Amino acid sequence: MIIRELCEMVSGRIVCGESRREESVEYAFASDLMSDVLTVRNGNFLMITGLANIQSVRTAEMSDVPFMLLCRNKKATEQMIEVAQENKLLIVESPYSMFRCVGILYNAGLKPLF
Amino acid sequence: MLSEFKIEGGDFTRAGYASSQIKKILKNLNVSPDVVKRVVVALYEAEVNIVAHAFKGVIVADISNSGIKLVLEDEGPGIPDIGMAMTKGYSTASQTVREMGFGAGMGLPNIKDNADRFEIVSEVGKGTRLSIEIDFL
After folding, report:
1. Contact yes or no for B129/B122 (Cβ under 8 A)
2. Any alpha helices (H) in B17-88, and if so which ranges?
3. What pLDDT is recorded for position A42?
4. Are B23 and A61 within 8 A, CB to CB?
5. B38 close to B58: Cβ distance less than 8 angstroms
């Protein structure tokens, strides 16, 4: 799934990493618990979370996650964007709930990790 | 190569800085991405633990050609029951820590899973010392 198309599906807005919008992603993992994200060995997935603080971006950095979807209308902070830019992380903000984002993206073919 | 980082308890804005620096060093040394991820995931969990539970701590990373040894020593409340602390799902984290996305009781077991050798020693009222070794080969 192309990130640009994914954004349209969740009424999302890219706030960081715009240059990666034509890249594609096959898998996703949704959690507000960063320790859960850190147990995932594979790194190439879309991280869906409602946790809008520096630790979600640090978790993406440590996990080699390339794309993050912030749901529930949460906004990335300046510090988050700064660290995300350092790590070439793309962040999308969506006004939809996590349940709605996950449902839309699952139906559109994005796969679960397990 | 030795690197040292001082960690302040409660300072979540800085939590992960040391892990980020170690990741940059390992990538520059062309360590395989799978190994780098194991190192930084284990280190990040341990770094967050110091921020979440201790007053302050020190991380010492010793990188050689064959691997990395991380020693994390903190001054803090210590762990009364290490067996319980190693149980998945067990946590004593505060509400503040949980709001930062941690405190699910997954940290220590995940550190152990990612390490080739792992040791934890703790004294109640004094602090905790973690030793994490990961081979590059």
Report:
1. yes
2. 17-28, 33-53, 82-85
3. 86
4. yes
5. no
Categorize the per-residue pLDDT at A39 as very low, low, confident or very high, splitting at 50, 70 and 90: very high
Measure A43 CA to nearest chain B CA, in Å: 9
Q: For residues B26 and B103, which has the higher predicted lDDT (pLDDT)?
A: B26
pLDDT at A11 over 90: yes
Total CB pairs under 8 A between chain A and B: 72
> How distant, in Å, are the alpha carbons of A94, B36, B125 from that of A9?
10, 34, 52
Average pLDDT estimate for A74-98: 97
CATH superfamily for A3-112 is HprK N-terminal domain-like (3.40.1390.20)
Residue A43: is its pLDDT beyond 90?
no
Domain ranges of chain B: 2-135
Residues of B in contact with A70 (CB under 8 A): none
For chain A, the domains span 3-112
| Cβ within 8 Å, pair A38-B106 | yes
ipTM metric: 0.93
- Nearest CA of chain A to the CA of B12: how many Å? 8
